[in-house]
Amino acid sequence: MEWGSTTLAFYGVGAAAVATSLATLRRRLQLSKAKHASLTGHARMARWVASFVPFYQYDEIRFFCSDDAPPDIAALRRAGFLRLSALYKTRYAETIGRTDEVAGGISDLQFTEAYRIPFQYGAVVRQHLKFGAFVQSSEGVTVTDLDGNRFYDLTGSYGVNVLGYDFYKQAIARGLERVRELGPVLGAYHPVIADNVRRLQAISGLDEVSFHMSGTEAVMQAVRLARYHTRRSHLARFCGAYHGWWGDVQPGIGNPVPAHETYTLNDMSCDSLRVLRTRRDIACVLVNPLQALHPNAGAPADGSLVDSSRSAQFDKGAYADWLKQLRTVCSEKNIVLIFDEVFVGFRLAVGGAQDYFGVRADLVTYGKTLGGGLPIGVLCGRKDLMRRFRDERPADICFARGTFNSHPYVMAAMHEFLQHLETPQGRAVYRDLDRVWNERAQRLNQRLEAEALPVRVANMSSIWTVCYTRPARYNWMLQYYLRAEGLALSWVGTGRLIFSLNYTDDDFAAVADRFVAAATAMQRDGWWWCDTATTNKSIRRRILKEMIAHKFSPRRAIT
Ligand SMILES: Cc1ncc(COP(=O)(O)O)c(C=O)c1O
């Protein structure tokens, strides 16, 4: 009898252990299923693969025929390249000269220049087609370089420029005037802050506000608070989404150490909802609504534009439905839903993505344009989630401070921005916004199609990206042709064009003319040549072969 009960107990413990292991295994499998198939969906593997990519580059012959183009096409490309190079050297002489002088001392510049285009082409391009980093003034929708060349600005200052540079100049000037008597006193508040808080509460529909110095910091604080209040360890983010450069939100390439407490999930997928429903360690879900334009893909920089597989398509209804499903799961499971609106806040609508998609979040981060032209990060949230201490346990706090938080100059410029949004003029900017930008994109695409150019644009309101319809290795050259036509792009090139909302129809018509002219010149110069056998897959296979050849036999490898 005694033996019998011991045996039973033994089997009982064994069965419980097996059940627990099976449940763990099931959750593990669910997690694997909820990862996007690309390397971007597998952060650890991506870092591992990246560590094997060898450096190699093309010489001045291979540069023009890395896709095995015939000699006549290579000659066409060379002639076009030299013409552009001569134009850059004369037209941008002063700007390039000054950039050359300082580049060795500015780390950021060295990084952006190295990753402006695929690395194999870097040496030749950097020698002949230098980019000037300086501008001296801005006006309307244009910026002017040191040589006096005016460019239509398509950089949007990384998204900060929503209302036009002249607006921010005035906001900063008026703001400085308002807080002049106080000056840069930190710690204590200028009274203007009270008004900012009131307006932000109304815009976000949330109870409390905290001020930080950058979008990255606002996101850090949101995640930290979610972990503190839920007492859970993990944050879930979606594949490809950018949330600043803090380690936990950048688990893959770019971060030298692994982010152990981050799950990167497949965007817009039922498998991901299942993970959220079944795991008990998820504190928060971080959403960057910009991903609606290219779910599961990272920021589409020209540095990784090795073929024409970049794609983008915005479906507002489908993304709104996805956010609603996320909202439901998060509410059911007490997971904190965070909208990271650092980029899209105040760009899609005054009330940001929450209003635009009709879904409320628990915490919302803002930044960029909200500072009225000065650096900022803001977190708005539910009262219970924003609290940084516990009444019942005074030593258990969630610490967050920052020397420059609530800087009077920033608060005053922010005040100008927020106040403007409530004026009829400020409201008018957002009227019909999507229709205006969708029509502009559609018209440009019609022209590109009519001219048989293998280029199209895709947009989410005023945020655009350029896609390519023919398999090709030189799409990144378009950024150099666009510059020659007087269109300024950021260092990510054609991957992201950001328009300020003060673009008039005439301004945009000028941009469209120049865009078509640039693409026409690039087509004429043979960069989009491809034979019938070329596909995006064959291009990638070819690059892989080059890498393997270089890895194992660097001397013999193609240069
Ligand atoms: C969605 C999003 N979150 C966070 C950040 C980081 O903001 P910051 O560059 O101000 O640190 C960015 C910056 O581009 C962003 O787009």
Summarize this structure briefly.
With 559 residues, this protein is of the alpha/beta class.
Topology:
Elements: H1 2-33, H2 43-50, H3 71-91, H4 93-103, H5 107-114, H6 122-128, E1 135-139, E2 142-145, E3 150-153, H7 165-178, H8 192-204, E4 208-212, H9 215-230, E5 234-238, E6 262-265, H10 270-278, E7 282-287, H11 316-333, E8 336-340, H12 352-357, E9 363-367, E10 377-381, H13 383-386, E11 389-390, E12 393-397, H14 408-421, H15 424-428, H16 433-450, E13 455-460, E14 463-468, H17 478-484, E15 487-488, E16 497-498, H18 505-524, H19 536-552
Helix pairs in contact: 1-10, 7-14, 8-14, 16-18, 17-18
Bound molecules: pyridoxal-5'-phosphate.
Pyridoxal-5'-phosphate is lined by residues 158, 214-216, 219, 242-244, 288, 340, 342-343, 367, 377.
Bound molecules: pyridoxal-5'-phosphate
Radius of gyration: 26 Å
Distance between the termini: 81 Å
What is the strand content? 5-15%
Specify the number of helices: 19
Number-wise, the strands total 16
Largest sheet, if any? 7 strands, mixed
Question: Percentage of helical residues?
Answer: 40-55%
Which of globular, elongated, flat, extended, rod-shaped describes the shape?
A: globular
Structural class: alpha/beta
Strand order of the largest sheet: 4-10-9-8-7-5-6
